[in-house]
Specification:
Layout lengths: L3 E11 L5 E12 L4 E6 L5 H8 L7 E6 L2 E4 L8 H11 E5 L10 H10 L6 H14 L15 H13 L5 E5 L7 H17 L3 E6 L2 H5 L3 E6 L2 E5 L1 H6 L3 H5 L4
Parallel strand pairs: 3-8, 3-9, 6-7, 7-8
Antiparallel strand pairs: 1-2, 1-4, 4-5, 9-10
The chain binds adenosine-5'-diphosphate and magnesium ion.
Length: 250
């Protein structure tokens, strides 16, 4: 059974001038346990919208979403209740963003412990211990008490990874995780994400502009004006589809 399955997913919004913007068009995508998928596409092609639907942060306009075979949204438009959806997301999904989204003025440990505070029933000392273990895993045991503003970009992204993974989600969603980092730091951060995803047998879906980052995944997709298509990166690197894929680079 797949972990998350989108079928015929569309997303559109109404703009202030009352025109309709079609962001996603007929997306079919299945991600299995332990899968590693990369999605490339130009800015504005719908990548973040797609990732948010995969992570149940956003709902489609039509089509269906299933998580572990449970209907999140059905073709009929019937939806899982908000509270159940929030719980499911909290247990199963970890997000990593380009801009880290850490709380300033709070220590790395506080930031990583944050997702544990919400209705997990764990005592305070246990939450801190888990956060410290996760920070150790990402190589930051010497920066437990540092707030984000005292950390480098690469260190901040490692804190963000620790925060995303502290609840051992089955699905890790990374939205341009190396976008704010230099090439070497980005490589190191991706290496770490790959490693921890494999260790915990989590699925990893990465959105990226960077072909080297995309190449780390097992399956590759391209999103173009809301239309998703699978890309054979090997064929792409031999010539034909290369222009199409590198067209994703800004
Ligand atoms: N809630 C919204 N209202 C209006 N336009 C939106 C909304 N969400 C996304 N968009 C537009 O949809 C397009 C796709 O957005 P997004 O998924 O963020 O693309 P990407 O991540 O590929 O850059 C963009 O043109 C964006 O401005
Ligand atoms: Mg985006």
């Amino acid at each position: 059974m797949s972990l998350v399955a989108l079928r015929g997913v569309t997303k559109h919004v109404r703009l202030p001038d009352d025109t309709r913007l079609d962001i996603l068009r007929g997306i079919d995508l299945e991600v299995g346990g332990g899968d590693h998928v990369a999605i490339v596409g130009r800015s504005g092609s719908g990548k973040s919208t797609l990732l948010n639907i995969l992570g149940m942060l956003d709902l489609p306009s039509s089509g269906s979403v299933e998580f572990r075979g449970r209907p999140i949204v059905q073709e009929s438009g019937r939806r899982m209740r908000r509270g159940a959806l929030d719980r499911l997301r909290g247990q199963e999904v970890g997000f990593v963003f380009q801009q880290f989204n850490l709380l300033p003025g709070r220590t790395a440990t506080d930031n990583v412990a944050m997702p544990l505070g919400y209705a997990t029933g764990r005592p305070f000392w246990r939450r801190r211990r888990l956060a410290e273990e996760m920070l150790d895993r990402v190589g930051l045991s010497h920066r437990l008490e540092s707030p984000p503003e005292q950390l480098s970009g690469g260190e901040q992204q490692r804190v963000a990874i620790a925060r995303a993974l502290v609840r051992r989600p089955a699905l890790i969603l990374a939205d341009e995780p190396t976008g704010a980092l230099d090439v070497d730091t980005g490589e190191a951060v991706m290496g770490l994400l790959d490693e921890i995803a494999s260790e915990t047998e989590a699925a990893l879906v990465t959105i990226t502009h960077d072909l080297h980052v995309a190449a780390r995944a097992r399956r590759h997709y391209r999103l173009d004006m809301g239309v998703l298509s699978e890309v054979d990166l090997d064929a792409a690197s031999r010539g034909t589809a290369l222009g199409a894929v590198t067209g994703a680079t800004e």
